[in-house]
Amino acid sequence: MSSVFEHATPGFLVWRLSMKWRVAVDRAVAPLGLTHAQYSLVASLYGMHHAGLRPSQRQLADHTGLEPLYVSKLARALETAGIVDRTRDPADPRAVRLSLTQDGQTVARRAIGVVHGLLDQLLDPLGGFDGERTRAFSDELATLLGVSLDPHVDQPTGTDADQTRSTQKHSDQRRSDEE
């Protein structure tokens, strides 16, 4: 491990890995006319289509973790590019259903192939896509993704003394790691 990351917090490492991944995907899919965020929509639509689904913008936002307003903006840009069709849902005129155009399907297949190549490269140190360490890593990531960080959700809060002890514990651990 690089000395830059030796005493980094998990939050910092998650941030750096997510930025490294976003930049790599942006660069890899740019020749296909996509950004990383657009790729997320296109690849998700591709997978959902093959599962027999035609999601609404809201459903796609929930699936990707992107804000609904951002999904709407991305979908409009992808529609202008001829990659996505947006149609009103006859059962709910407020909802917009999304699907890939024929060109969108082609772009999606190519982009997914490119990004899978990147993923293979990223996961190689963990034993590759099917490696035991990769499966364990994926399980840990899924666990963290299941934790609500919504400040409006009632979560047990400690007293100031509990928070001080927790801060002191992390500080003591970091100091012992440095020794």
Quick structural overview:
The chain has 179 residues and is mainly alpha-helical. Helices cover 62% and strands 8% of the residues. Strand 1 and strand 2 (92-100) form a beta hairpin.
Structural class: mainly alpha
- The topology string of helices and strands comes to HHHHEEHHH
Strand order, main sheet: write it out. 1-2
Molecular shape? globular
**How much beta, percentage-wise?**
5-15%
Please work out how many helical segments DSSP would assign. Answer: 7
DSSP, total strands? 2
Q: How much is the radius of gyration in Å?
A: 21 Å
What is the typical, i.e. mean, pLDDT? 87
Helix content: 55-70%
First-residue to last-residue Cα separation:
17 Å
Can you characterise this structure?
The structure is a single chain. The chain has 179 residues and is mainly alpha-helical. 62% of the residues lie in helices and 8% in strands. It has 7 helices and 2 strands. Strand 1 and strand 2 (92-100) form a beta hairpin. The longest helix has 22 residues, at 102-123. The protein is globular. The protein starts with 9 loop residues before the first helix and ends with a helix. The relative contact order is 0.09.
Can you tag this structure with a few keywords?
mainly alpha; 179 residues; 2 strands; 7 helices; disordered C terminus
Topology:
Elements (H helix, E strand, L loop, with lengths): L9 H20 L6 H15 L6 H8 L3 H13 L3 E6 L2 E9 L1 H22 L8 H14 L14 H19 L1
Antiparallel strand pairs: 1-2
Helix pairs in contact: 1-5, 2-5, 3-4
